[in-house]
């Protein structure tokens, strides 16, 4: 049975918005008296949470990945049983912050090094030119104090395209959406952008030179660096909130 109700939601605070939105949605869905709860429209949710559409969509994408939110005919429904189970997971296994940063990083460590290695084996000259384009764009963006992260995500998806495996492209694209918040955090430390570009250049050169194991290791090193930057950014945020 599907339930609809008037959402009463506390506007999310300015920091860590997607995970706070996700946590509040899980609590509302879990409190439903039926098996599923029809969610308000994106516009209504953005107004009630007082957040932007990108923040809301990131939270919803995260919950869809957990099975807490499902989509049918362009409408979203909260699954009460999944939400209640997730509340237990939040309290006993991991915080929402861990689920939105540590867990995706773990998946990146599993998926992306192998993707880079396969790209090194299969890349075409057109793939090399596309990857070079994103490297150059990142460098120019950094020099002009722009948002390097926008080109970072495009670079990683282009690596997947260079494998010529359509499933991998879909997987890495979805992973980029899910890990958007953690990527944002990883670029907050001062040294992050310059170091990330250097990492990307090493990955690119290994793929260009068709050296699969070097590409694998370069990507693994990069994901480890991203994890370090996320932890540093999280610590800085905690210190600011003390």
From TrEMBL:
Transmembrane segments: none annotated. GO terms for molecular function: DNA binding; DNA-binding transcription factor activity. The lineage of its organism: Bacteria, Bacillati, Actinomycetota, Actinomycetes, Micrococcales. Pfam families: FCD (PF07729), GntR (PF00392). Keywords: DNA-binding, Transcription, Transcription regulation. PROSITE patterns: HTH_GNTR. Residues 15-84 form the HTH gntR-type domain. It comes from Nesterenkonia aurantiaca. This is GntR family transcriptional regulator.
